[in-house]
């Protein structure tokens, strides 16, 4: 390719001489197309994400960093049935630069009494980890999260206590969920209020 | 003084008879039968290789150390190396340019210095930073980029940078700005070397699926029902890493971050020096072949596996024609007076696109988003503005659009790369005059170009 590079160089010089212009440093082609540090790839991935977005009516999406950062956003779920009816739960989504090769990182920002979500906000949802496939998307995750609230399960526990209560005493589980959502203690742990319309 | 000394030693290197370059001479001074199409053996080629060609080596770790040494000994005398890491004591077993006394110093600087001391005539400029920290113009002056990285993200980034230089003619053939890359990678006893010539061979993004997703265990298994040793380690890594922070506080140690935790955990995969050496040798040879045409390059992906015996396999992967990074995209010629709203309508009418309800982004700037409603609201005011103004009055640039199109009667969402050119702008005229052969403009009145009835723009 040395030959090709030299030819291109020569062409450019000739073109400049023919026009009697002093050689001006051409703005880099790369510079025209990319922002330093943002490969553009990330951006169109974000764009693809948003155009495919078809969220369940129980959810809303927000962009804390403004319209140009589509790789970090928050989804708020307000379950319309089940134990968590009336609650409002915020999830942060961090879409990795190589999405969809890798799943987004999802955390529950709202402290919740839930068998499949621990008190640090880690979520046990198979498609977020072991069952992630590049054909899946944000919708699948949001629907999956929604399902966790309408059908919490005691088989994949992250919060062992909550799972045991759900399995052995669903009535008590319901009471605990209500208490946590209203703002209060369940066992030794305090849960801030997270009801819809909460102040 | 120093500069003068360097020049002298390059000349010495060039004139060294039967010495350091004896083997290189056999490759590039004599004609051959399996050489590349543009091969012109002789002293001029050698001089260009040594004096003109500038190589960027990304990474100065296990593979990077090997690459710098191999490239320098192959006649690439103008090298630059970039790496954000400092030397750790655990690197010393394989990153052979580093000594115990170098621990804590930047890898790029020590590696550059060491190779310059050992190989006379070579000049290596070190950069102690992340590749993302460099201005894009930093990459302008390199003829070839050689990658010795261990992260998919960094590869994806540099690939996008290299491909962004690519120019296409109106037939969708690459016409200028080809910045070749050679990519090496190793993990334990396995490795790969590949040649990426943007526009001609698949880019990193064309077959990113080659990199298997990392095995991820279910969180609940890690937390509640671990069954293997790996489960236990992952548990500590993912769920209990906060404990590391507490422990560090207790002992007054700073620097425990999540990324460091990940780095430490990732490093438990043992790196094998011989794998680095083999992969690096393949990469350096390909770089020499690409630049001098002394032989045809590999086509295009070499896998190496030394786990049981030694096995290697070459695969010629195909380009993804619609690749958003290296593909030509769809050429659209526009008047300066086109508003964003009008542009969106045009994409719906364009016979090659027929995109309905497209969202538009330009260089990380979302110009218009159809959904979700919160973004639509934020971007709606752009609709009546001129597209030319919105993209910063750049005469020709790449815009991405995503929307739905109908394929065999089925609505499918798709993402498209568009090359827009504004008629009558300075760039337009200059290119037509001076580089007619390079930028041929679309004769949009010629039905052959569209393959359809001519649309009215
Ligand atoms: Zn590609």
UniProtKB/TrEMBL annotation, chain A:
Gene3D superfamilies: Ubiquitin Conjugating Enzyme. InterPro entries: Ub_conjugating_enzyme (IPR050113), UBC (IPR000608), UBQ-conjugating_AS (IPR023313), UBQ-conjugating_enzyme/RWD (IPR016135). The keyword Lipoprotein does not apply. SMART domains: UBCc (SM00212). Pathway: Protein modification; protein neddylation. Residues 29-186 form the UBC core domain. Keywords: ATP-binding, Nucleotide-binding, Transferase, Ubl conjugation pathway. Belongs to the ubiquitin-conjugating enzyme family. This is NEDD8-conjugating enzyme Ubc12. It comes from Acorus calamus.
From TrEMBL, chain B:
It holds the Pfam family ThiF. Its EC number is 6.2.1.64. Keywords: ATP-binding, Ligase, Nucleotide-binding, Ubl conjugation pathway. GO terms for molecular function: ATP binding; NEDD8 activating enzyme activity. The active site is at 220 (glycyl thioester intermediate). Residues 332-423 form the E2 binding domain. Pathway: Protein modification; protein neddylation. It is an enzyme of class 6 (ligase). GO terms for biological process: protein neddylation. One of its GO terms (cellular component) is nucleus. SUPFAM superfamilies: Activating enzymes of the ubiquitin-like proteins. InterPro entries: E2-binding, ThiF/MoeB/HesA, ThiF_NAD_FAD-bd, Ub_act_enz_dom_a_sf, Uba3_N, Ubiquitin-activating_enz, UBQ-activ_enz_E1_Cys_AS. It catalyses: ATP + [NEDD8 protein] + [E1 NEDD8-activating enzyme]-L-cysteine = AMP + diphosphate + [E1 NEDD8-activating enzyme]-S-[NEDD8 protein]-yl-L-cysteine. Catalytic subunit of the dimeric E1 enzyme, which activates NEDD8. Belongs to the ubiquitin-activating E1 family. UBA3 subfamily. This is NEDD8-activating enzyme E1 catalytic subunit. It comes from Acorus calamus. The lineage of its organism: Eukaryota, Viridiplantae, Streptophyta, Embryophyta, Tracheophyta. The gene is ECR1.
């Amino acid at each position: 390719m040395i030959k090709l590079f030299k030819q291109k160089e020569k062409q450019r010089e000739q073109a400049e001489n023919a026009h009697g212009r002093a050689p001006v440093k051409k703005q880099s082609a790369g510079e025209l197309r990319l922002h330093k540090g943002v490969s553009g790839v990330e951006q169109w991935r974000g764009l693809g994400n948003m155009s495919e977005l078809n969220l369940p009516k129980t959810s809303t999406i927000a962009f804390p960093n403004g319209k140009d950062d589509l790789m970090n956003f928050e989804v708020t779920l307000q379950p319309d049935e089940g134990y968590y009816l009336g609650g409002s739960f915020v999830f942060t989504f961090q879409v990795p630069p190589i999405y969809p090769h890798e799943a987004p990182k999802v955390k529950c920002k709202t402290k919740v009494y839930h068998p499949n979500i621990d008190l640090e906000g880690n979520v046990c949802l198979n498609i977020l980890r072991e069952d992630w496939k590049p054909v899946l998307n944000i919708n699948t995750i949001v629907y999956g999260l929604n399902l966790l609230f309408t059908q919490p399960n005691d088989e994949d526990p992250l919060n062992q206590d909550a799972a045991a209560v759900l399995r052995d005493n669903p009535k008590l589980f319901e009471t605990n969920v209500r208490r946590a959502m209203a703002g209060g203690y369940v066992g030794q742990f305090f849960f801030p209020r997270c009801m819809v319309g909460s102040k | 003084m120093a500069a003068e000394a360097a020049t002298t030693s390059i000349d010495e290197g060039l004139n060294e008879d039967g010495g350091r370059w004896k083997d290189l001479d056999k490759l590039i001074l004599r004609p051959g039968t399996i050489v590349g199409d543009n091969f012109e053996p002789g002293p001029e080629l050698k001089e260009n290789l040594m004096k003109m060609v500038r190589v960027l080596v990304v990474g100065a770790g296990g593979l990077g150390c090997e690459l710098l040494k191999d490239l320098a000994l192959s006649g690439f005398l103008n090298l630059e190396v970039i790496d954000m890491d400092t030397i750790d004591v655990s690197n010393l077993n394989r990153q052979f340019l580093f000594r115990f006394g170098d621990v804590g110093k930047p890898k790029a600087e020590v590696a550059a210095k060491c190779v310059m001391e050992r190989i006379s005539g070579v000049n290596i400029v070190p950069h102690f930073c992340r590749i993302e920290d460099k201005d894009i113009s930093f990459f302008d002056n390199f003829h070839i980029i050689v990658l010795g990285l261990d992260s998919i993200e960094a590869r994806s980034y540099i690939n996008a940078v290299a491909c962004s230089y690519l120019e296409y003619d109106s037939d969708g053939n690459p016409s200028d700005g080809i910045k070749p890359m050679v990519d090496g990678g190793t993990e334990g006893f396995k490795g790969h070397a590949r040649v990426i010539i943007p526009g001609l061979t698949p880019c990193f993004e064309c077959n990113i699926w080659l990199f298997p997703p990392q095995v991820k265990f279910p969180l609940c298994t890690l937390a509640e029902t671990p069954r293997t040793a790996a489960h236990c380690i992952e548990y500590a890594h993912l769920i209990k890493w906060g404990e590391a922070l507490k422990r560090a506080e207790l002992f007054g140690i700073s620097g425990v971050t999540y990324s460091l935790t990940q780095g430490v955990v990732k490093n438990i995969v043992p790196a094998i020096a011989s794998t680095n050496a083999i992969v690096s040798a393949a990469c350096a040879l390909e770089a020499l072949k690409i630049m001098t045409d002394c032989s045809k390059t590999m086509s295009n992906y070499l896998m190496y596996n030394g786990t049981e015996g030694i096995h290697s396999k070459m695969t010629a992967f195909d380009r993804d024609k619609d690749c958003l990074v290296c593909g030509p995209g769809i050429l659209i010629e526009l008047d300066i007076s086109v508003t964003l709203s009008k542009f969106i309508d045009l994409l719906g009418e364009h016979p090659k696109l027929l995109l309905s309800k497209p969202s538009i982004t330009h260089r990380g700037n979302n110009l218009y988003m159809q959904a979700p409603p919160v973004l639509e609201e934020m971007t709606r005011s752009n609709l009546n503005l001129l597209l030319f103004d919105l993209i910063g009055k750049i005469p020709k640039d790449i815009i991405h659009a995503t929307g739905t199109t109908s394929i065999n009667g089925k609505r499918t969402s798709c993402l498209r790369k568009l090359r827009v050119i504004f008629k009558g702008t300075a760039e337009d005229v200059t290119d037509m005059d001076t580089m007619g052969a390079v930028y041929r403009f679309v004769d949009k009145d010629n039905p052959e170009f569209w393959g359809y009835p001519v649309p009215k723009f």
